[in-house]
């Protein structure tokens, strides 16, 4: 296998912060020698998360074995995941905002067992693919506040938000949340756009929205736009565009990326 110089659009701060985290972990463990320095290990981990490089490609580029790549990645991802905020911490941050944006997104996966219908829970009828549902909370200017642990992709956004306790948390704390129509009935703290009114019994067609309702929906969509940008930034970490590992291991991947996104802002 051949190696070549390459680059990735990750801030130098992310490399420094991760390298410092790894150095502290090595001192705590009393590690005497490693094949790669903490800085090189941090670079390896970011190349895996940001660019989705395979173990074999990383092993070639960093002149180590694939087993070493696996150990370095497992170690660093675990350290990053442990720093991810909890929902309670996220709600505390959200309480200081004018409002937050709540949205769900699907992370595609390709390693799902097909026996005994195990894969059905991961199949999203909306997106026509297997994946994992994550709930994302962003602030009004498009900065990440929190990402939920992933659930099977067949879960509806409202069901996933309730399962994580997001709906109860924002209503209890009085945090105003802007969301799409999937979160209809989420309580007084959650604002959703107007839906088309019921069918006209005479014509059989949906009754159109009024001009005022359409204007309200347009303003609502503009407020939700920063949340869509956060979802796009999340998938700029290519390891999450199509998760190749077991769905059971996706929780740590999502938490690790969440830590990097929050500390970079």
Helix-strand blueprint:
Blueprint: H1 12-29, H2 38-51, H3 55-62, H4 66-82, H5 87-94, E1 100-109, E2 123-124, E3 129-138, E4 144-147, E5 151-152, H6 157-164, H7 166-173, E6 177-178, E7 190-191, E8 197-199, E9 206-207, H8 211-234, E10 242-243, H9 250-263
Parallel strand pairs: 1-6, 1-10, 6-7
Antiparallel strand pairs: 1-3, 2-3, 3-4, 3-5, 8-9
Helix pairs in contact: 1-2, 2-4, 3-4, 4-9
Helix content: 40-55%
Note the main sheet. Answer: 8 strands, mixed
Structural class: alpha/beta
Low-confidence blocks of residues? none
Task: State the shape.
Answer: elongated
Q: Rounded to an integer, what's the Rg over CA atoms?
A: 21 Å
What's the helix-strand series? HHHHHEEEEEHHEEEEHEH
Walk me through what this model shows.
With 265 residues, the protein is of the alpha/beta class. The protein contains 9 helices and 10 strands. The chain has helices at residues 12-29, 38-51, 55-62, 66-82, 87-94, 157-164, 166-173, 211-234, 250-263, and strands at 100-109, 123-124, 129-138, 144-147, 151-152, 177-178, 190-191, 197-199, 206-207, 242-243. Helix 4 (66-82) crosses helix 9 (250-263). The relative contact order is 0.15. The model has no long low-confidence stretch (mean pLDDT 92).
């Amino acid at each position: 296998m051949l190696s070549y110089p390459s680059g990735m659009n990750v801030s130098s701060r992310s490399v420094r912060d991760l390298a410092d985290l790894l150095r502290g972990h090595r001192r705590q463990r009393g590690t005497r020698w490693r094949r790669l320095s903490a800085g090189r290990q941090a670079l390896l981990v970011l190349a895996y998360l940001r660019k989705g490089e395979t173990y074999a490609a990383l092993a070639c580029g960093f002149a180590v074995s694939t087993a070493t790549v696996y150990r370095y990645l497992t170690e660093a991802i675990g350290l990053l995941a442990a720093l991810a905020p909890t929902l309670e911490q996220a709600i505390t941050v959200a309480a200081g905002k004018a409002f937050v944006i709540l949205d769900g997104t699907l992370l595609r996966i390709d390693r799902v067992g097909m026996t005994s219908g195990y894969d059905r829970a991961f199949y999203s009828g909306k997106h026509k693919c297997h994946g994992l549902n994550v709930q994302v909370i962003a602030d009004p200017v498009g900065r990440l506040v929190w990402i939920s642990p992933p659930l099977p992709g067949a879960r509806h956004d409202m069901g996933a938000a309730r399962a994580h306790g997001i709906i109860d948390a924002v209503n209890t704390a009085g945090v105003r949340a802007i969301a799409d129509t999937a979160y209809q009935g989420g309580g007084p703290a959650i604002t959703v756009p107007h839906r088309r009114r019921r069918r006209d019994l005479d014509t059989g067609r949906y009754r159109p929205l009024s001009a005022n309702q359409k204007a309200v929906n347009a303003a609502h969509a503009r407020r939700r736009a920063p949340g869509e940008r956060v979802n796009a930034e999340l998938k700029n970490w290519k390891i999450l565009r199509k998760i190749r590992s077991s769905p059971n291991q996706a929780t740590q991947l999502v938490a690790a990326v969440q830590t990097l996104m929050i500390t970079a802002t």
